Amino acid sequence: MSISLCDARALLFDLDGVLIDSYEVWFALLNAVAREFDYPAVSRDAFREGWGQGIEADARLLFPRHTVPDLERIYAERFERHLGVLAVASGVPALFEALRARGVRSAVITNTPASMARSLVARAGATPDVLVGGTDVPRAKPAPDMVLHACAKLGVAPREAWVVGDTEFDRAAARAAGAGFVGLGTEGDVTLAELGELFAHLAAGT
Predict the structure, then answer these.
(1) Number of structural domains the chain divides into
(2) What are the tens digits of pLDDT across the range 2-31?
(3) Half-sphere exposure of residue 126, counting CA atoms within 13 Å on the CB side?
(4) 62 and 103 inside one domain
(5) Distance between CA atoms of residues 110 and 131, nearest Å
(6) 7, 14, 16, 145: which one is catalytic?
(7) Boundary (domain end) residue, out of 54, 85, 116
(8) Domain end among 37, 56, 85
(9) Beta strand pairing call for 10-13 and 105-109
(10) Local structure of residue 40 (DSSP, 8 states)
(11) What residues make up the domain containing 27?
(12) Which terminus of the chain is less hemmed in, N or C, by CB atoms within 10 Å?
């Protein structure tokens, strides 16, 4: 059983849908890759269904002639071409400053490959203590590997941490690891409509 949110020793943030919104960036990128390597176009429905599952799922379902390392390299080389439609959540730098002032450790855990996630985290103005990308652990979310790895690097027990995410994959990873889950627009142990509500909660010390 996880401790209460206000007593959490660490907060672990998903990246997409929480700190940034790169949904349209990835949709454009995947279709550009599909055209370049003569795969079928990625439909809106297929993209929506697979959103958040990680690069392993892309290799299995969309680009089966390519390996995970192949796709990681291809994505990294082409990702910045599509960043014109990237959106960043407001208040992200202040949120991480508030966590640091409260002595709360922080991490970003994302199925995005770490090499790409670093630049996106920087663009968001986030300053986590730890970054765990999709290629840093054997299994991406919804497996608990990222949560467990981040907690180990932060020196906290999973039950002392809360995951902040926006998908069922984030929720499943948190629960499999024994951490609490803050759902942004999705059901959680604590459910919020937007990231700013978490900031207000922490700033008030409640």
Answers:
(1) 2
(2) 788 888 999 999 999 999 998 899 999 999
(3) 28
(4) no
(5) 8
(6) 14
(7) 85
(8) 85
(9) parallel
(10) P
(11) 23-85
(12) N
